[in-house]
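Hey, I was hoping to borrow your eyes for a little while. I'm sending you its amino acid sequence along with the backbone structure tokens. Take your time with it, there's no hurry, and the full record follows here.
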Amino acid sequence: MSLNHPIFARWPARYPDRLQLFSLPTPNGVKVGIMLEETGLPYEPHRIDILANENHDAAFLALNPNGKIPAIYDPAGPTGKPLALFESGAILLYLADKTGGFISADPDTRYETIQWVMWQMGGIGPMFGQVGFFNKFAGKDYEDKRPRDRYAAESARLLGVLDGRLAGRKWVMGADYSIADISLLGWVRNLIGFYEARELVGFDRFRYVQAWLDRGLARPAVQRGLEVTAT
């Protein structure tokens, strides 16, 4: 089997019958690595070095014109033809449907799960990312701390929403671990770890979030997924 897509001229597939993952272990990238490890779906990972601007390589842009990781190429899409996808939330939903796992078949619960994934995509991701920029990266040198404080306050508010949701629940959707949890774990981990913002957002007051994070990070598939494309 050969894969006819420009991406493979730059990143050849050794196992062309497997789903191909193009990623890096960023908070968005690890979502798909974790999901693939949780499902057990055979896949081949390719590291896309964003610091070397590989995500702007013409071959990668042919797969994802938005130039962001992660992206996938499934040689066996829903209709039997290859399917290329970008946007981590869309990929999580696709893999859940493909494998029949980590999302409920009940329509009401399904849409509620998707709701929390969209909440992560539209709120947690952008806000936590801005905290990282202003607290650890180039933005930390700005004398005016109002941008940092604004994003930190909104991130704390979002953590409060998540904390309230998790009160009395093991996972975001209750007893069942789902793509809602997978979408969030890497971001919350990064906020208090790599972004060094634990004190800035007052993380320790969100005890339900902390317990949920500990449960999630203890999962073997999560531990493996966090390392996919790390080297």
Observations:
- The beta strands are 19-23, 43-47, 71-74, 83-86.
